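A.,

Following up on our hallway conversation. Structure tokens first:
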């Protein structure tokens, strides 16, 4: 196997030399290209997920990917929750969504300013990341000897750069001057899943490294048709972006993992009041507090306002989530067009809508506690009980 790799890399070296003879470049770049090939000769290429698929039947390959790759992704709390709740999602994510990427020693993953397409999970060894400037050659060759900063499990750049940083990294320089050593259990570039993102720093592989890549189109593809999963992704995305928007520009980084450490979770709680699901629930609660005359007209008015609140809830959401919210109204009211009622509303319609609202809000339990959601629905059901409509 080693001889095969050496032969292939030798052929690559000859091809590079022929190319450079035709298209000359600077000596600095030529040396960098040849050093890269020289380093890759020393390693045996790891088999990829796709190569394993040619060796195993579909069932075994799916089990292998689900167990092996799922363990790498599971430190991310949102993905962990979805994989535990929806086993089929774990299989689809690991088989169809995640792509493995094996890097040569000192290979550059990305540099500042380029468009980011993939969220990256560190699977093996480590990655060096620097928010400002580039990772120096000394840091690449002796990563354990230089002033690197290893992310502890479940923490992020933003939480580490808090007003009370650990003693070992206190310096007159800004925290962004340090090089981070990112190990398995951590990830980079999550914002690219939820918004347009450009790299803010440079990342370089250690002696060698393996990563798992996930891009937005792959994630949307494997969740298409799953309204519940889409709803939870929308809620997470809104929360993530709210937290991201509150971070000063000079503190932004490619390695923030918002919301999964103590500081990030506290930030999410602070932003909860601004979140769109909280606004929708607040509208419903306000209607219930002021609706003291439960007549047919009041109930219809309440339904219209509830629909308005649901409209806020699903604004910008995937089609699957919009269809899920509209289900209770099928054959009764096309609320998306605000058309007239097709048939008289009955109490069971409203109960069904409230239950749907409850399940959607509970999916965003990071925003609202279960008690708050259930109180809203308890008040609504008490209002229904006083409403003189035939059941």
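Then the amino acids I'd put at each of the 391 positions:
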């Amino acid at each position: 196997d080693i001889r095969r790799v050496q032969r292939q890399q030798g052929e690559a070296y000859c091809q590079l030399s022929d190319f450079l003879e035709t298209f000359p470049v600077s000596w600095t770049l030529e040396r960098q290209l040849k050093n890269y090939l020289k380093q890759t000769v020393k390693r045996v290429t790891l088999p990829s997920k796709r190569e394993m698929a040619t060796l195993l039947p579909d069932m075994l390959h799916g089990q292998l990917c689900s167990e092996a790759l799922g363990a790498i992704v599971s430190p991310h709390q949102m993905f962990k929750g979805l994989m535990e709740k929806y086993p089929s999602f774990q299989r689809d994510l690991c088989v169809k969504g995640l792509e493995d990427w094996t890097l040569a020693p000192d290979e550059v993953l990305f540099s500042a300013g380029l468009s980011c397409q993939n969220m990256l999970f560190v699977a093996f060894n480590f990655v060096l990341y620097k928010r400002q400037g580039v990772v120096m050659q000394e840091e690449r060759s002796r990563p354990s000897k230089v002033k690197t900063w290893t992310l502890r499990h479940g923490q992020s750049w933003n939480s580490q750069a808090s007003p009370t940083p650990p003693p070992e990294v206190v310096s007159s320089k800004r925290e962004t001057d340090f090089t981070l050593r990112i190990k398995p259990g951590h990830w980079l570039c999550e914002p690219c899943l939820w918004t347009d993102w450009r790299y803010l720093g440079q990342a370089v592989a250690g002696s060698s490294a393996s990563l798992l890549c996930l891009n937005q189109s792959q994630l949307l593809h494997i969740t298409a048709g799953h309204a519940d999963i889409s709803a939870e992704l929308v809620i997470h995305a809104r929360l993530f972006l709210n937290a991201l928007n509150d971070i000063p520009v000079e503190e932004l980084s490619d390695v923030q993992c918002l919301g999964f450490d103590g500081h990030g979770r506290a930030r999410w709680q602070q932003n909860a009041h601004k979140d769109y699901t909280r606004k929708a629930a607040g509208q419903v609660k306000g209607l219930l507090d002021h609706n003291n005359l439960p007549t047919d007209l009041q109930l219809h008015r309440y339904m219209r306002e509830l629909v308005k609140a649901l409209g806020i809830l699903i604004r910008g959401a995937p089609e699957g989530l919009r269809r899920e919210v509209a289900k209770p109204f099928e054959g009764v009211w096309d609320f998306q067009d605000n058309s007239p009622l097709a048939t008289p509303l009955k109490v069971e319609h409203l109960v069904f809508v409230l239950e749907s609202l409850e399940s959607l809000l509970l999916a965003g339990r990071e925003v609202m506690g279960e008690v708050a959601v259930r109180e809203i629905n308890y008040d609504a059901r008490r209002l229904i009980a006083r409403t003189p409509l035939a059941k």
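Strands lie at 99-103, 108-110, 118-130, 148-150, 179-182, 187-188, 202-215. Curious whether your intuition agrees with the design.

B.
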